[in-house]
Structure formats: structure tokens, C-alpha cells
Amino acid sequence: MSLFNKRITEIELQDIENLIKDQEAENKQLEYKGEIQEDKKEKNIINKAVCGFANADGGLFIYGLEEDENKNPTLIRGISLEDTSWDEKKRSILSTIESIEPRVNVEIKEIELDDGKFIIIIKVPKSWNAPHCIKRKNGKNRSFYIRRDGSTNPMEFEEIKDMFDLNSSLLEKVNNYRNERVSFWSSKNKDKYKVIFHAIPFDSFSINQIDFKKARNILNKDFLYGYYFSDFEGLFSNESYYEGKLFRNGIFEIVLEEYRDEGGVNVGNPYLEFQKFVKDSLEVYDELGISCPIVYFVTFTNVKGRNMIQKPMEHYVLTDAERDTLNPVGIIIKDKNQIADYAYNMFVPIWNHFGKNVDYRFDDSNDE
Predict the structure, then answer these.
(1) pLDDT band per the 50, 70, 90 thresholds, residue 149
(2) What confidence tier does 152 reach under pLDDT thresholds 50, 70, 90?
(3) Quick check: 49 and 17 in contact, CB under 8 A?
(4) Distance between CA 9 and CA 109 in Å, rounded?
(5) Torsion-angle region of residue 365: left (phi > 0), alpha (psi -120 to 50) or beta?
(6) Which residues, listed in sequence order, are joined to residue 1 by a DSSP beta bridge?
(7) pLDDT attached to residue 343
(8) Is the peptide bond before 125 cis (omega within 30 degrees of 0)?
């Protein structure tokens, strides 16, 4: 396994020693640096590394590991913190990279050595908010860097322009994919309504295929939405009222068919199921090394003329009896702690459609 694909919490001293043993030279996702004496130079090197990795495919900056003229690791030197604590050093690094815009969220880990020095590992994810630049103190000058092979270099004008263009079209690709799948499902078995969940990682448009064997083991170990088998498109399950699909590029799809023929639409159960889907899929993605941001959608199809299944003594008025598809705007999850509020807000326009007067909220103090 590539060291970059490991969770940063799992990287140990033995992994660093193996880099030297295997003569793993600096590459597009690895940069080494021994101890840097000058504070200003240290900040500049860290900023360039983080910016360059974020504008490429992400990477690991391993601070405290010497390299030779061929960029091969040679010696674990470690970083002396002197009178500074590790927490203070970590805060200093995070403060340093605040000059990168848009902001880059990194993970940082320390490995303490026997002599009291530290190896510092900064893991930079591939960014879908690129291009990133380093903003200089005067606020006017900005420098764009990108990681190529084993070097971090200034970006060319055309590279910067192409990156802006790519990201402006990314959400269009996400929405087009969702619309194609919704159209497919809405045309099947039209006498039943369906609820469709989608998880679409930005990474799905840059990778050819996930680790299929690992994905199958993860899904079947926890029995998420049924037992999964392989087909042409990826992994699928077909259990009772669930149909699950994990496509080869990492896109997750769950379809819930109407399971009670009462003529009405059950919104409460899918709301709870959606929260579970977000939580479960984020855990699967974490194990597969697929990082946020991830776009989540919920869609109700074939609901034309249907009322909401009501609790006793609750009465709602259908606001649009002709609308057949309810497709609120997706949510972009960048953090697991965002699930509760975002899931609730995703369902607000759906509840409103069925006449339930609820509003958006921005805390998780209430549950539907």
C-alpha cells in the first residue's frame, strides 16, 4: 500500500524507516525535508509543499527526514522543538498555512524519537477547490505552485486557467450524473414511488476504479444494505425494499421502493435512513481512502398526486399535486460533524411540498 493511502493515524516510525530501506525517492506525493534553521525559510517551504500538493493529487510532507541529491531519503534527523511544546508547534504550522487561499485542510501527526526530537508528517488531500495560492504579506502578490514528480514548481498561466475551468464544470458533472440515474429509476415500475440516495465523491471523476476487493469485504463485513455481488457496473445488492449499488468509480446509490401500498409517501423513515446512509458511506469511503468533499443527494420519484403518510391528528395539504419528482439541491459534506443539520435541511423542501410547515435550521438541537 502506498504510504499516502494509509490513514495518517496508522503511519508509524517503521513506515519512515522503510522509506529509507526501500530508497523511496521523493515523488508526486512525497516530499522530505530535514531540520530547517530559519523560521522564515521553514514557513515558506511548508507553504509551498502544501500548496503544491493541494493543486496536484495530494501528498505527504515528512519533516525531519533528510534526503540526498537524488531525492532519496538517507537519515531520520528529527526536528528539535527546543522550548516549544508539540501543541505549540502544531498551532504554528496551522497558522503558517493560513496564508494559503482558498484554505487547505490538512492532517498533522508527530512521531517522537528516542532523543526527544520529532518527525512531523503533514498530509495534504487532493483539493477540489483548486487552484490554491500563497498570499504574501502585502495581500497583493499571490504565488501558485503545483507538485510535479519530485518537485514543487510555480504554475503556468494555462495550468491555472485550466484548473479554474475544471472546477467550474465539476458540479455540472455531478448534477448530470444524478439526473441520469434519477431518470433511469423513475421510468421503472412507475406505479410505485421511490426514494433514491446518492453519494458522489469529487474523487470519482479522477479515478478509474476503487479497490474492488477491499470494497466488497467492507460492505459485506458490516452487511450495509444487503449482501453485495459483482456485476458489470460495480457491486450491487438487492434486499427486500433496498437496492444498493457501489459503482467502480466510488459513487454510492441506494434505492428504497415503496414498501406499503397505502397511496401515501413516507418521509420520516427515509429521513432517518438518509442520515444512516451518509454516516455509513463516509465510513466506507474513509476505509477506501476516498476523501471528502462528497456530494449527497436525496430524490423522491413517482410521487405525483400522493399525500404524505400522516401521523394521527396531523393534517397537511399537498402543495403541488402535479409534481412527480422531488429533487432538492445536494449537500457537500466536508466533515462528519455536519451530517445532522445538513440532512434535516435537505428534507425541508420535501416536507414543505407535502404541506408540513417546517423551516431550515443550523444546529442539531431538534430531531424530526
Answers:
(1) confident
(2) very high
(3) no
(4) 7
(5) alpha
(6) none
(7) 84
(8) no
Find, among 259, 148, 251, the residue nearest to 205 by Cα. Answer: 251
The whole-number pLDDT of residue 367 equals: 47
- Give the list of residues 6+ apart from residue 345 with CB closer than 8 angstroms, or none: 331, 360, 361
Q: Locate 286 and state its grid cell.
A: 474513509
| Dist CA 170 CA 56 (whole Å) | 16
Residue 358 DSSP label: -
Q: From the CB of residue 183, how many other CB atoms can be counted at a distance below 10 Å?
A: 11
Do the beta carbons of residue 93 and residue 120 sit within 8 Å? yes
436525496: which residue's cell? 298
Backbone angles phi, psi at 279, to 5 degrees: -60, -50
Cell numbers representing residue 67 in the block: 534526503
- Could you tell me if 247 and 290 are in contact, meaning their C-beta atoms sit under 8 angstroms apart? no
**Beta bridge partners of residue 245, listed in sequence order:** 236, 253
316: region left, alpha or beta (phi > 0 left; psi from -120 to 50 alpha): beta
Averaged pLDDT for residues 24-38: 91
**For the whole prediction, is pTM greater than 0.90?**
no
User: Which residues have CB under 8 Å from 235's CB, separation 6+?
Assistant: 212, 215, 216, 219, 228, 229, 244, 245, 246
Residue 122, C-beta contacts closer than 8 angstroms, at least 6 positions apart: 46, 49, 50, 60, 61, 63, 93, 106, 107, 108
Query: CA-CA distance, 231 to 252, in Å (whole number)?
Result: 15
Lowest average pLDDT, out of 130-139, 204-213, 234-243, goes to 204-213
List CB contacts of 271: < 8 A, sequence separation 6 or more: 343, 344, 347, 368
Tell me what the pLDDT averaged over the chain comes to. 86
How far is residue 93's CA from residue 258's CA, in Å, rounded to a whole number? 52
Q: Is 19 helix (H, G, I), strand (E, B) or coil?
A: helix
Task: Give me the DSSP letters along 287-325.
Answer: HHTPPSPEEEEEEEES-TTPPBP--TT-----S-TT--E
Cα-only R_g, the chain: 24
Length of the chain: 368
Long-range Cβ contact pairs of 137-142 (< 8 A, separation 24 or more): 142/101
- Taking only the tens place, the pLDDT of each residue in 303-323 is 998 888 876 656 677 778 889
Question: What backbone phi and psi angles, to 5 degrees, belong to 240?
Answer: 40, -110
Helices (H), ranges, the chain: 13-21, 39-54, 86-96, 157-186, 212-222, 268-288, 339-353
